[in-house]
Amino acid sequence: MLSGLDNGFNYLFDEYEAPMTIQNVLPYNPLINENQMKKALAENDGVQFSHTFGEQIGGQLKAGFVMTDAFEDFYDDNSRKNHGFPEFWATRALKI
Q1: Is 11 exposed, middle or buried (CB count within 10 Å of its CB: 0-12, 13-18, 19+)?
Q2: What SS3 class is residue 65?
Q3: Exposed, middle or buried: residue 9 (CB in 10 Å: 0-12, 13-18, 19+)?
Q4: Residue 15 carries which DSSP code?
Q5: What is the pLDDT along the chain (96 residues), one digit of tens a residue?
Q6: How far apart are CA 94 and CA 64, in angstroms?
């Protein structure tokens, strides 16, 4: 199985412009946080959620997958240069 995952950092910030300040707490869940839902609807973003490392990676392992590779990635070169942290993870796993 190949899996592309958002590590949640994208949900911490409303704007990716300096200076970056944390606007949200994780996990990001508009069904629980009324302000997040209002913003999502106002910006026509759809309802999105963040998930913890345990939910994403732990869920794969609990389902019987064995990780065979993993890497981190950046949204784009500007993200790498300006923010310095990878926003995404990818895993490769085999079902045993």
Answers
A1: buried
A2: strand
A3: middle
A4: -
A5: 999 999 888 888 877 777 778 888 888 999 999 999 998 899 998 899 999 999 999 999 999 999 999 999 988 877 776 777 888 999 999 998
A6: 8
Kindly report each contact of residues 51-59 with a partner whose C-beta sits within 8 Å and lies 24 or more positions away, as own/partner.
51/5, 51/6, 51/8, 51/27, 52/8, 52/26, 52/27, 53/7, 56/3, 56/5, 56/89, 57/91
Distance from C-alpha of 68 to C-alpha of 92, rounded to nearest angstrom: 6
- Six-digit token string for 92: 């490769």
Which residues contact residue 75 at a Cβ distance below 8 angstroms, ignoring those fewer than 6 apart? 10, 87, 88
Cβ-based neighbour number of residue 8 at 10 Å: 19
Q: Cα separation of 5 and 92, whole Å?
A: 11
pLDDT at 15: 74
